[in-house]
Design brief:
Elements lengths: L1 E6 L4 H13 L3 E4 L10 H13 L5 E6 L3 H7 L7 E3 L3 H9 L5 E5 L5 H13 L6 H13 L8
Parallel strand pairs: 1-2, 1-3, 3-5, 4-5
Helix pairs in contact: 1-5, 2-3, 4-5
Length: about 150
């Protein structure tokens, strides 16, 4: 898989380790920035990854900011993106198994490195269950479609 990874300045340090892990797991890791610890605006970097996922230029994305929540909000503005803020092994696994999340959002401030690495590995190796969950994910796609109106 092609995995796009980006952060804000608070996630730069762990981003480099995540990129290495993604590569070690046999995926193509793409660094969408930033490259240093200088203060940046997280929406700019979250949008880069979300746009690539939305356009299907990459298979999945991983975003890191202070809490993971800001990146998640930005990413979910893009059609076809199902971003989830993951806090532990269970949310990492279920975001894939039940929601078919294609963008994982992590906290650069609140997670320790070994814990974050384990969550990334779980997220990248967990398959979508489909079945009843596919019906629900399809409804989400319908809600974001152009055909959906607020009168429906």
């Amino acid at each position: 898989m092609k995995i796009a990874v980006a952060s804000d300045h608070r996630g730069v340090q762990i981003k480099s380790k995540i990129l290495a892990l993604v590569s070690d797991l046999g995926h193509q890791a793409l660094d969408f920035g930033p490259q240093d610890h200088e203060s940046v605006d997280y929406p700019d970097y979250g949008a880069r990854v979300a746009k690539a996922v939305s356009r299907r230029e990459v298979d999945r994305g991983i975003l890191i900011c202070g809490t993971g929540m800001g990146m998640c909000i930005v990413a979910n503005k893009f059609r076809g993106v199902r971003a989830a803020t993951c806090h532990d092994d269970v949310t990492a696994e279920l975001s894939r198994r039940h929601n078919n999340a294609n963008v994982m959002c992590l906290s650069g401030d609140l997670l320790g490195e070994p814990f974050a690495m384990r969550m990334v590995e779980i997220w990248l190796t967990t398959e979508f269950e489909g079945a009843r969950h596919a019906r629900r994910v399809d409804k989400i796609s319908h809600y974001e479609s152009e055909e959906f109106s607020s009168n429906s």
